[in-house]
UniProtKB/TrEMBL annotation:
Alphabetical list of InterPro entries matching this protein: GalU_uridylyltTrfase_bac/arc, NTP_transferase_dom, Nucleotide-diphossugar_trans
Coiled coil segments of this chain: none
Organism annotation: Roseinatronobacter monicus
Keyword terms, alphabetized: Nucleotidyltransferase, Transferase
One GO MF term attached to the UniProt entry: UTP:glucose-1-phosphate uridylyltransferase activity
Designated name of the protein: UTP--glucose-1-phosphate uridylyltransferase
Annotated ranges, domain Nucleotidyl transferase: 11-269
CDD domains given in the database record: UGPase_prokaryotic
GO biological process: UDP-alpha-D-glucose metabolic process
Enzyme class per UniProt: transferase
Length: 299
């Protein structure tokens, strides 16, 4: 059995779609109510048995490290005010036995380059990659599914879902082969953001991956692709054409928090599921909808 214990989080992106909010604050720290997007991804990784978190950061991303580092001054203030529960919450953002490593991506040369920057920290070990923009919710989360599938069949694995025709051009789309008895889908190729007419399927790869260290050798020799960047999709396509890639269906509900409407949808759904104020929030939404309908009817 091959166990994956390392996770890579590429968090060097500039987050231009959320300016001006992300002018000084990393997009990964944008909150879903009271928890940053990236913390959801970290909790998903830890739940899957990951014990080493590798963050690939860039310029102006020090705040990401600060969030996962200890803050003794804040903890002392909370203790002095008798807020022990809050102190424990802050202290346990990274659970005991889980370590954090921060690696710098010196230039914004693409997702493939960001993953390659993690190579010294990953070494000759298998690893998962989580893109924090993709918020996953549900009882079964994709990183756990990837880790379990990798233990059965160590190879590059993608978490995938079928998308609507109008969304095909937004994602890496799989050229699929047969599906095995264990549910693994063979991947014969990966086309990055194709036009609908050129798409080999409607099965899209999202921000959860499992890799063997073989991916690093390909990324080192890969020529720049779309946008003049080193594209992770191109490296996956290379492996797929050698018959070394499979996919599994994403078991969770996915929110694209790199998109403003997807981010807003995530906030609403997470708030509605909150056991403390979910019912109150639902009542608020109903009141606002009624007011909106009344105002429209009066026009």
């Amino acid at each position: 059995m091959v166990a994956i214990t390392k996770a890579v989080f590429p968090v060097a992106g500039s987050g231009t779609r959320f300016l001006p909010a992300t002018k000084a604050m990393p997009k990964e720290l944008l909150p879903i109510i009271d928890k940053p997007i990236v913390q959801y991804a970290v909790e998903e990784a830890v739940q899957a048995g990951i014990t080493e978190l590798i963050f690939v950061t860039g310029r102006n991303k020090r705040a990401v490290g600060d969030h996962f580092d200890a803050n003794l001054e804040l903890e002392s203030q909370l203790i002095a005010k008798g807020k022990i529960e809050l102190r424990d919450m802050v202290r346990n953002i990274v659970p005991e036995g889980v370590s954090c490593i921060f690696v710098r991506q010196p230039e914004p040369l693409g997702l493939g380059h960001a993953v390659l920057c993690a190579a010294p920290a990953v070494g000759d070990n298998p690893f998962v990659v989580l893109l924090a923009d993709d918020l996953m919710q549900g009882k079964n989360l994709p990183t756990r599914a990837l880790v379990d599938a990798f233990a059965r069949n160590p190879r590059t694995l993608l978490s995938v879902s079928e998308v609507a025709e109008q969304d095909v051009s937004k994602y890496g789309i799989l050229k699929t082969g047969p599906t095995a008895d264990d549910g693994m889908i063979s991947v014969e190729g990966l086309v990055e953001k194709p036009d609908l007419a050129d798409a080999p399927s409607r099965m899209a790869s999202f921000g959860r991956y499992a890799f063997t260290p073989e991916i690093f050798a390909i990324l080192r020799t890969l020529k720049p692709g779309a946008g003049g960047e080193i594209q992770l999709a191109d490296a996956i396509d290379h492996l797929a054409k050698e018959g070394k890639v499979s996919a599994i269906l994403n078991p969770a509900k996915r929110y694209d928090c790199g998109d403003k409407f997807g981010y807003l949808t995530a906030i609403v759904d997470v708030a509605l599921e909150n056991p403390v104020y979910g019912a109150q929030f639902l009542s608020l939404l109903r009141d606002r909808l009624a007011q909106h309908d009344t105002a429209n009817a009066a026009e």
